[in-house]
């Protein structure tokens, strides 16, 4: 991966469907002489088109967006531009989507709540050819990778719980016994570190395991 020349401005593309976040990043970058915001996109399709035309040094990519999400966009960009330096923007620590994004080729991880402190260092570090995973995030990612992920059946059960279905109905729909459903729920709560089924649903949504 080539390193960005020190005497040239670092060109940044921001991809996020929330105008306020984009404006906040733009305001921070505006004051920097060595960094220039060259483009803004609101979904993955726009991100790919802008990446092709702008060839930014660093791309900041939100994960949850309409039309094409961040993970799909990372796959698409990296397929055409293997050396693209992309950092993900995420709201939650321990987001399963973040693991998928890193597997797709993201080399940086930024929590939106930490942008004020970390944004500039992260951009400069990534432009210089480094990965940027804050220590506490690196530990959590390793922790997530080492834990058993939910099985396809457990995800199915959790999705049904999220839709408000009682165990009896879930058992009937999946053609398994209520006791089996209870066993799946115990495993789900165990793996997610949830205190009850509602908490498990909340964590499942936050981490991108299920959608509502």
Main-sheet strand order equals 2-1-3-4-5
Mean pLDDT: 88
Shape: elongated
CATH superfamily of the largest domain: Response regulator
Helix run count = 10
Q: CATH class of the largest domain, anyone? A: Alpha Beta
Secondary-structure element string: EHEHEHEHEHHHHHH
As for the number of domains, it is 2
| Share in helix | 40-55%
Supply Rg.
20 Å
CATH structural architecture of the largest domain:
3-Layer(aba) Sandwich
- Give the CATH topology of the largest domain: Rossmann fold
- Strand proportion, as a percent range, falls in 5-15%
Domain HTH luxR-type: 143-208
Domain Response regulatory: 11-127
Keywords: DNA-binding, Phosphoprotein
GO molecular function: DNA binding
Task: Quickly describe the structure.
The chain has 10 helices and 5 strands; from the N terminus they run E-H-E-H-E-H-E-H-E-H-H-H-H-H-H.
Structure description:
The two termini are 39 Å apart. A 5-stranded parallel sheet has the order 2-1-3-4-5, with helices on both faces. It has 2 domains: 10-145, Response regulator (Rossmann fold), CATH 3.40.50; 152-206, Arc Repressor Mutant, subunit A (Orthogonal Bundle), CATH 1.10.10. It has 10 helices and 5 strands; from the N terminus they run βαβαβαβαβαααααα. It is an alpha/beta fold. 34% of the residues are buried. It has helices at 19-30, 44-54, 70-80, 96-104, 115-127, 135-146, 152-162, 167-174, 178-192, 197-206, and strands at 10-15, 35-41, 58-62, 86-90, 108-111. It comes from Pseudomonas rhizophila.
